[in-house]
Amino acid sequence: PSQLYFGRYLTFFLLSQVQTFIIVLGHLYLLKIQCVHPGLLYLTGFFTSLTFSLLIYALAYSFGDVGKAVVVIVMVLQIAGSSGTFPVELLPEFNRRIYILFPFPYAIDMMRECICGLYGMHYVQKLGLLLIFAVVGLVIGLLVSQPFSGLNHFMEEKLEETELF
């Protein structure tokens, strides 16, 4: 099962890294952002992409269509409530309480460090927190998926019986 998991994930990993490479190059050379640490910006993109692709793949792999729905909900909540559009201090109380439960604010902080300059161990701390989410993705994908495999097959069969999809 772990070989199957990593074999399938390799495709998602490679595509996410190509996307990261294009985005970082676009920021540096098309948008011409002023970046203090361009190499570190790509490294941040690498770890951010790794974390997000692991989480998304693990949820979809482990829980099937339900996992895909959870991914969509989490992504919407995360972008709206994790300082992606507004500073956390300006967001509603609900968003201020949950934003630390998502990897997005840590990735944003790391990107800011790369663009504006490093401040102490802030970058390393945020990287450690981001990698915790990658480990959670691995645990979900490798350990949680096994008990739910029968339930996923049952759900897929019932969905096919409806002839909606």
Description:
The chain has 165 residues and is mainly α. The chain has helices at 2-30, 38-81, 93-98, 104-116, 122-162. The chain is globular. The two termini are 27 Å apart. The model has no long low-confidence stretch (mean pLDDT 87).
For the CA atoms, what is the radius of gyration?
18 Å
Order of helices and strands: HHHHH
Figure out the total of helices: 5
Q: Can you give the mean pLDDT?
A: 87
- Class from helix and strand fractions: mainly alpha
Question: Considering DSSP H and I runs of 4 or more, what fraction of the residues is helical?
Answer: over 70%
* Fraction of residues in β-strands: under 5%
Shape: globular
Main β-sheet description? none
| First-residue to last-residue Cα separation | 27 Å
| Poorly predicted sequence stretches spanning 5 or more consecutive residues | none
Number of strands: 0
